[in-house]
Amino acid sequence: MKRYWLVVLVMAVTCMVTSCGDYSEVEDLAVVVGMSMDETSNHHLRVTCDIMRSSESGSDSTSANQNQDMLVTGEGLSMASALENIQKKLDKRIYLSHNTLVVLSDKVISDRFASMLDELERNRELRLNQMLVVVRGDADQIWTISNRSETPLAITIRQAIQNWEACTDAFRAEQFRMLRDWNAPYGVAHLPWLDPQAANWVAGLAFVDPRGGIAWWSICPPRDNGALWLLGDTRNLVQKIVFQDPFRGKEGQVCIRWVHTHTSLGFRYHKNKLCVTVNWWGNGYIEAMSPGHVADRTTFKVLEDQAGRDIQRDIHQCITRMRSADVNLWRMSLYRTAPQLFRILERKDPSWWKTCDVSYVIHPHIVHSGLSTRSPG
Amino acid sequence: MTGRADGLLSKRVEDNWLMLQACLASAPDLKRMPFEWNGSLAFVVWIDGLVAAERIQMGLSILRLEEASKKSISSLKHLRQQALWMSMNATEKRDDVVTAVLGGKAVLFQDGLGTAFIWDVESLPGRQVDRAENEPTLQGPQEAFVENRVLNIALLRKRLRSPDLRILDFTIGERTRTTVSLLYVEGITKPQLIQEVSSRLSKVCIDGVVDMNVVREWIADAPRTIFPTIEETERPERVVSGLLQGRVAIVVDGTPMCMVLPATFAQFITSPEDYYMHYTLALPLRLLRHIMFWSSVLLPAVYVSLLTYNQDLVPTPLVQKISSQRAGIPFPTVFEALFMMFAFEALREAGTRLPRAVGQSVSIVGTLVIGEAAVRAGIVSAGMIIIVAATGIASFTAPALGMVQATRLLQFLFVLCAGVFGLYGVAILGILLIVHLASIRSFGVPYLAPVGPTILTDWKDALVRAPWWDMGRRPEEFEPVDPKRARGRR
C-alpha cells in the first residue's frame, strides 16, 4: 500500500512539475493577425506585426493607427530575431497562431523567399492556412490602408482578397493556402498581388520562383484571365469569347463559365531536346448568349475551337513572360517526373527551361448549362 | 421488563398492561380502554394518534352485540370466529404485542387468556397521493409515491394487475423496525437477481432506517463511486416499467421514493416522458440529453483550457472579445471558473433549502444582481458567467437527481485538471472517467451496457428510443427469464 501511494505521489508531482509550461492567460497574449516583411538597406529583415487590440492593451513603444490594430515593428537578421525584438517592446507574449496574412515585399522575395518560407513553415505557432501576399515596394505600406471595419486590418484585407468579385472562386482555390500546395504543378507560388492604391487592393497575381524571380500579372476577368489558366485547378472562371457564329453567319460573343479547369505538365526528351506539353482541359457551359440564338452542334464545335485558341494564346503569353521574368515553371514537375533527367539538364545547361520547346494539348468541353456538372471532363 | 421470563404473555390483563408500560417507559400516549366482556375484564391498548379511535369504538360495540346474542360461546372462540371480519391476529408473544402497538395496531387482552389479539385499526399520519414534484412531466401519469409503503405498493398493483407480482417483506432496523418490500415479477425477473438482492437486504444490520438511502448505501455496488448504481424514482409507472424489464423494485416504509435495480448509465439519462410522446420526438430529445450531460461535465473545463493553453483553437474574433472581457480581471481563468461554479452551487443550494417563495427571490437576486454587479466590478468576465450558466442549465436536463449531483462534482475535477494540464488533462481525465464507468457493475450488470459491452438490440431503448412496436424484446442486459415483450409485430 505504501508503494502504491508512493507511485501515485511521484506521478502527481511529475505531472504538476511538467505541466503549466504553455500556460498563458488569453489577455496576456499579443495576438498577431498580420505580418509584413521588408528588407532594410543593411540586409536586415524588418517585420511589422498587426496586433489585435483588446480594450486595455497598449504600449509606449508602439504606434497605433486604428482602433482595432496595434502595429509594432522590429528588425533582425531573420524572422525569429525580428520577432524577438518586437517581443522586447511588448509587455505581452507574442502569439502567432491567429496570424492570417503575411505581406512580403518584392525585395524579400527576390533575396530570401526560400528561407522565409522555411521559417514560416517551421514555426510551431504559425498555422498553415495563412495567406501570403506580395506588394511591389515596401510591404509595410499595406498598413496605411484606412480601416473602417470593426475587425483588424489584416483580417479585413484577407476578406477583401477572398471576396474580390472578379476572382472570388479562383482565389478561394486551395492553392492560395500558401504552404500546402504552393508549388504544384510548376514549383512556383501564385500569390495575390496587393496594391494599396487599387480599388479593391488586389492588382493581380504574382508568380514567384523560390529562387527569386517574380512575374507580375494583372487580371481583369472575363476579358483577360491570363495567368489564371495556368493554375493547377480553378473553379467557375468566366471567359468571354468572340467567335464566328455559324447560325447568323457573322461575329458573335458568348460568355463561358468554366466549372472546372485543370492544367498539368508532360515531358518528352527526344534527340537531346526537352519538349514540355501543357495539358489543359476545362468543363464549362454557355452562360450568356444572344437572344434567339440556337446553339447547335456546329456552334459548340466552333465555340470549343475558339475557346481553345484563346486559352492557348493566353497560356503561351504567360509562359513567355514567366521565362523573361526568371520564373521556372517546369522545375518541380520535371524533378518529380524524371529526377535524373532534371539533374543532367541542370548540370549541362542551367537555363534549359528557357529554351525547351512547349506544345499544347487543350481540351475545352462546352455543354448546355444543365449538363455541365454531369459531363465527363 | 415486567412479565414472564419465557417471553410469553401473562393470563392477567393487568400484568400485560404493566409489561407494556414498562416497555414503553410509561409513555403518555399509550392508552387503554378497560371493559367487561363475557364476564371478565378486558383491555384494548393502543398508542394515541396511530390508530383510528372510531374504528375501535365501532368494533367494541359489535363485539358486545354479538356477546349479548350468543352468551354460551367462549370469548376466544367468539373472537376467532370474528377474527377475519375484524382483521385480528392472535399472538402469545410479548415482543409481537410491543411491535404491533408501536406499529399503529390496537391490542385486545382478556383476563384468563394468555393470548392477545392484534387488531389492525392502523391510521398512521401521512399525506395522500400527490403530483410528482421531483420528476415532473408534461404528459403521462402524474401520481407520485408517498411515505406509506402499503399505499405505494397499492399504486404499483393498480398498474400491474398481474398475479405474478411477488412481494417479499424484510424488517430492517433493530430500533426502527422498518418494513422493506422487495417486488418483482415472477417469470420475468432472473431468479439469481432476486436471490442476490434478498441476500444483501438480509445482511443490512443497522439500528434505524430513516430513509431509503440507508438501504441503498448498504446494498449498492461500487460504494465509493459518485455515480448512482440504483435508480430512484417517485413515479409508480416508472417502477412498473422497470419490473416489466426484468428488474426488481424496493419499497421502503417512510420514503416517498422507490428503488429500481439493476441500473445502467443510460437509464439515468432517460426521462419518463420519452415514453409518453411519439418516438420521432423522443429520439432527438434523448440525444440532446446525452449531449447536455457531457456538456455539463466538460464545458467549463474546455473553456478554461481554451483560454489558458489552447487559444489557437478559438476563432480569432472571439479571442479579441474574450481578451477584452478578461482585461482587468484580477484572477486567473481557472480560479475565476472555480469561484463562479462555487457561487452557482451556493445559490443552487440556498434555493433548495429556503422556502419556495424566498428561494425564488434568492435565485433572481443571485443570478441577475450579483452576476451583473460582479461583471461591472471586474471580478468575473461576462463570458465566464455565460459558460457557468449554460453548464448549470445543461446539468438540469439530466432527469435523475443522482446523476446531476455526480456532474456537479465532476465539473470541479475537470476544471482543476484543465487549469493544470489544458485540453490534454481534460482528455486524460475523460479517459479515466470512461474507464471508471466501464468498471462499475450494478448487481452484475455492466454500468455502460448496452454500449460497453455492446448489446445492439438494447440500443433501441438506450441512446435512442425506438417505437414501441419495434421493442418486442426486453432488454437483454437484465437477462430476463421471458425475453419477449410482444408476441407479434406491427
From TrEMBL, chain A:
<dbReference type="InterPro" id="IPR057336">
    <property type="entry name" value="GerAC_N"/>
</dbReference>
<dbReference type="InterPro" id="IPR038501">
    <property type="entry name" value="Spore_GerAC_C_sf"/>
</dbReference>
<keyword id="KW-0564">Palmitate</keyword>
<feature type="signal peptide">
    <location>
        <begin position="1"/>
        <end position="19"/>
    </location>
</feature>
<feature type="domain" description="Spore germination GerAC-like C-terminal">
    <location>
        <begin position="226"/>
        <end position="368"/>
    </location>
</feature>
<dbReference type="Pfam" id="PF05504">
    <property type="entry name" value="Spore_GerAC"/>
</dbReference>
<keyword id="KW-0472">Membrane</keyword>
<keyword id="KW-0732">Signal</keyword>
<protein>
    <recommendedName>
        <fullName>Germination protein, Ger(X)C family</fullName>
    </recommendedName>
</protein>
<dbReference type="InterPro" id="IPR008844">
    <property type="entry name" value="Spore_GerAC-like"/>
</dbReference>
<dbReference type="Pfam" id="PF25198">
    <property type="entry name" value="Spore_GerAC_N"/>
</dbReference>
<keyword id="KW-0449">Lipoprotein</keyword>
<dbReference type="InterPro" id="IPR046953">
    <property type="entry name" value="Spore_GerAC-like_C"/>
</dbReference>
<feature type="domain" description="Spore germination protein N-terminal">
    <location>
        <begin position="22"/>
        <end position="194"/>
    </location>
</feature>
<keyword id="KW-0309">Germination</keyword>
<comment type="similarity">
    <text>Belongs to the GerABKC lipoprotein family.</text>
</comment>
